[in-house]
Design brief:
Shape: globular
Structural class: alpha+beta
Low-confidence stretches: none
Helix content: 40-55%
Radius of gyration: 16 Å
Number of strands: 4
């Protein structure tokens, strides 16, 4: 499988860069945990998706409580704030109570994995694992998450599509 991941930030101010570095650090943890597990004979997909989804379920529950709603407008308001939109160079494509469509033009997690020299194939695997958290958040909002495009798989954007069940 040959993929050429394109993931270059446009916004490079000091604050945005500092926030991205925090997210990169989180991504580094995920990679190193999976890498060490692989060295011990464990397949990443056998443990990491469930753990990351648990984190997303926890975070999603907190976001529902914070916003006092499970409307997807509430998810936009509590998680996809202006700072988050800047860090991920995100466009809000659609927001209703039942649908939230977002396009991310940059991913600090992918950048962290690229800095470590992770193969494009393994970056795609790590992204699938990391997205389990976003699936868990969506579940707490009574929604499913579709990802028809993904930077980690060579697309120009990550297209997150939350839809109420």
């Amino acid at each position: 499988m040959f993929v050429m991941i394109k993931n270059e930030a446009k916004h490079k101010d000091a604050l945005t860069t500092a926030i991205r570095e925090l997210l990169e650090h989180r991504a580094l943890w995920l990679y190193l945990l999976c890498d060490e597990a692989g060295k011990k004979g464990l397949e990443w997909e056998d443990f990491a998706p469930d753990a990351v989804k648990r984190c997303g379920l926890y975070q999603g529950g907190n976001l529902v409580s914070k916003g006092k709603t499970d409307s997807l407008k509430g998810l936009k308001k509590t998680l996809f704030t202006a700072p988050a939109r800047r860090v991920f160079e995100m466009d809000v494509v659609k927001t209703t109570d039942d649908e939230l469509f977002l396009d991310f033009h940059y991913c600090p997690l992918v950048k962290a994995w690229q800095k470590q020299g992770v193969s494009d194939e393994d970056i795609a695997r790590l992204c699938d694992i990391a997205m389990c958290g976003d699936h868990g958040i969506g579940e707490k909002f009574g929604a499913v998450l579709e990802l028809p495009k993904c930077i980690a798989k060579g697309d120009e954007v990550c297209a997150l599509r939350y839809k109420k069940k």
